[in-house]
Please model this.
Amino acid sequence: MRAAGQRRPAALLAAPAAAALALVALLPLLATAWLSLRRRVLVFGEDRFVGLANYRALAVDARFWNAFANTVYFTAVAVAVELLLALPLALLLHRAQRGRGALRAAVLLPWILPTVVAAKLWALIFQPELGLLARLLPGGAPALLASPRLALHAAILVDVWKTTPFVALVLLAGLQAIPDDLARAARVDGASPLRILRSITLPLLRPAILLALLFRSLDAFRVFDAVFVLTDGGPGNTTEPLSLYAYKTLLRAGSFGLGSAISLVTFLCVAALGLVQVRLLGGRGGALR
Amino acid sequence: MRPALALLLLAAASAVGCRREGRAAGETRVVLRYQPLGGDPRPLQALVAEFERANPGVRVELQAIPNASDLAHQLLVTALGAGAEDLDAFVLDVVWVAEFTRAGWLDDLSDAFPPDRIRADFLAGPAEAVVREGRTRAVPWFVDVGLLYYRSDLVPSPPATYAALEAEARAAMARAPGTAGFVWQGRQYEGLSCVFYEALWGHGGSALRGGRLALDTPEAVRALAWLRGLVTHGVSPPSVLVAAEEDARRAFQDGRAVFMRNWPYAWPLIQDPASPVRGRVGVAALPSEDGAPGAGVLGGWQLAVSARAPPARRAAAVRLVAHLSSPAANLVLALAYGRNPARRATYGEPRLLRENPFIAGLLPELERARPRPLTPYYMLSADAVQGELSAAVSGLRSPAEALRRAQAQADAIAGVAP
Model:
C-alpha cells in the first residue's frame, strides 16, 4: 500500500493528462448531454429546454429502433465472422516459414485502404449490370444494395473484408506470445495437433481473442463510413446504423437536440459494451489485469 | 529549431494578414459564395471583372462551396446560423428560399427587383419560389427541369400517358432483348423525391396544403404505387433502386434503356461523338396519367444577399446580383456552361437559338416546371421523406403505410401536433 505522502505527487503528475481528457472528452460529452435536453433548430432560432422529451420521442421512434437493431445486427455478425475467419488466417501466418513478411504485408492491404475507397470499390463490384459480381455469376448479379434484406449483409461483407486482417494480426501477436515448449511437450506426450489446438493454443489465446473482440465490437458499433458510401442508409433505412441516423438528424434535418440524444444513446451503448468486455478481459487470465 | 520555425511561420502569416487588410482598406470587398459551374472558369471570371470595372472600389471575392446540394446547405446553414460575416452574396437552391427567408437570413431585394418585374421577366416556377409574401428574397440565376429522354430508334413517338410509357417500353424491350424499359433515380436521396413529386403531379396531386407538407393523400399513394409497380412489373430494373442521375445516364447512354428520367445536363453527354446512342435520342415532357404534358421538378440556383452584411457591402452585393442575373449574363451562362437561363427573353436570343438550340427548345418544359413544396420545413423533412419513399419503392412497406409514416415525421419536424 502506498504511503499518503506519495499520493499528492502522483495526483499532481496525473493532473495534466486528466485535464486534457476532461477538455477533449468529458466536456463535449457533457455539452452533448445538455444539448440533448433541448429542442434546438438552428435555422429557425428555436432553442428551448424540453427535459427528456427527445428521449421519450426516441423511445417510440420506429426509425430509432430500426437503426438500433441494424447496428446490433451489424456488430454481432461482422465481429463473429471476422473472428472465425481470422483465427485460421492467424494460424496460417504463424506457421508460414517462407515469404513470411511479404505474406503479412499482403494480408494487411485491405486494412490499409481507406474505408471510403474500399466501400466505393465494393459498390462497383456489386453494380448489378456491369459489376464484377454480375460478370462472375452466370445468371447475372442480384441488385444486392437495392434489396432490403441483402443490403445490410453487403455492408457486413465489406466490413469483414476490410477488418479481418486486423483481427488476424492481433491473434497472430497472441500466438507468438505462446511458448513453443508447451506444444513440444504435448507432442512428446502424444497429443494430436487438434488436441494441442484445443487444450493449449486456444486457452492461451483467450486474452488476444477478447482484446480483438473489444476493439472490433466498439469499432463496429460506430459504423458510419462504409454504409454512408454504399447505400447512404437505403433502401428504406434498412442499412441505417445509429451513427448515420444521428448524423442525418443533426446535419440534414438540423435538429440538434434530437441528434444529440441519438449520439448520447450510441455513446452509452458503446460504453456499456466496452465495460462488459473490459470486465471479461480483466477476469481469469485476462490481458488487462 | 522547431520554435524558431513556428515563430517564422507566425510572422509570415501575420504579414500576409496585414497585407490583405491593407489592400482591403478604401475598397469594398464583396464575398460571393457559389458552386463552381464546371469547365472553364474564365467566362464567369470575365463577368465578375466586368462588374468590378463598372464599380470602381468594389472587389469581388469568389469563394467556392461544395457542388453536392446537401453539403452546400449544411455549410451555409452553419455559417449563417452562426452569424458569419464573410459571405455577402451566395447561391441557393430553389427549395431553400422559403427556409432561409423564415430564418431571416435573406435581405429584402424588392427595391432593386420589384416582385412584378420578377414575375414578368423570369420563368413562372423560379419567380414563384423567390417571391415570399410579396417580397423578393432572391433572384433566379439558372434553372433545371426533369425531362423524359427516349430512344427515337426504338420508340415511334414519346408517350403522353403512363400507360403508353409502359406499353412502349414493353414493346421495345421485346424487340431489343437485354434492354431495360425505364430508368430513373430510385436511390434513397433527393433525386428519388424529385421523381416522386413528378409522379404525384402527374397523378393530379399536390404536396402542399396550407403551407404544410401533405404526403398522406390518395394521389400520393397512387403515384408511389405506380413507381413501385414499374419495378415489380419489370419495366424498370431493380438497379434503379440504387441509381442516382449518373447511374441512370450511363445505362441509357450505353444503350441499355429505352426511357430515362433525367435533367438537361445529360443531353450534351449523350450527343458526344463517342456516345453509342448519339443521334438516336429524343427529349420530351414527362408523361402523366391523363395525357396532358407532365410537369418536371424545377431545379436550379438563385442569387441572394445576406441580411447580415454591412450596408456598404450589401449595396455592392445587390448590384453584383443584378449584374450576374442580367440578360447578358444569362446568355453567357447558357453558352459557356449549358445552364438554362432563368429569364424568358433569353430563349429568343438569336445566338442561343443558333449555338445551343437544345436549351432554347426547353422553354415549354421550363414554363411547366413546378417547384417542390415551398415550405420552410422542406429541407429539414427531406431526409425523413426520402427514407419512406425508398421503403415504398423497394417494397419494404406499402405506399400507404410509408406515406403515413412520412407524414408523421414531417409533422413532428415542423412542430405540428399529430
User: Anything to note?
Assistant: The radius of gyration of chain B is 23 Å.
